[in-house]
Amino acid sequence: xxxxxxxxxxxxxxxxxxxxxxxxxxxxxxxxxxxxxxxxxxxxxxxxxxxxxxxxxxxxxxxxxxxxxxxxxxxxxxxxxxxxxxxxxxxxxxxxxxxxxxxxxxxxxxxxxxxxxxxxxxxxxxxxxxxxxxxxxxxxxxxxxxxxxxxxxxxxxxxxxxxxxxxxxxxxxxxxxxxxxxxxxxxxxxxxxxxxxxxxxxxxxx
Length: 206
Known about the structure:
By secondary structure, the chain is α+β, with helices and mostly antiparallel strands. It folds into two domains: 9-38; 49-205, Protein Transport Mog1p, Chain A, CATH 3.40.1000. Helix content is 29%, strand content 23%. Strands 1, 2, 3, 4, 5, 6, 7 and 8 form an eight-stranded antiparallel sheet that branches. A hairpin with a 5-residue loop joins strand 5 (139-141) and strand 6.
């Protein structure tokens, strides 16, 4: 049996160039250039995080003239503002009062999430099992976003309500603390904060 003769250097170069040119021709024929075959086409239902409506500055959302907690002032160094995350903390001018409000809004995302359905599922998971909240006992609340729940805790120094709301793709985390206020007052204030905040946020987080 005759053994095949190895290709010469020039023959090898010619073969490689032929393969490359043929591949490029096919790519351009099917439209758009080389990247068209190297990446998966993006369907209209796929969502890019940067395409979402940016979140507002929460320190400005709760200005003294329209805030449900008018006695509290924002702490400038507590401000976080990003397209998919915003937070701000507020406190009473008199430190002795120890009344505080912390508001955090996020549009949770994961690099493996691509469709609206996946985004909504991921947000539901974050609401159901919130990070760092496993010691709290929540009770459901109606008529706030798609779903909401609140937990009230008390100790010798502070009484506070933690309210979580999911509105579409958004997770809202509110903590309102005030000495001397009972459960009903804590819950009522945190719910007013959530209602006020929902008016300023992109509908369904989109």
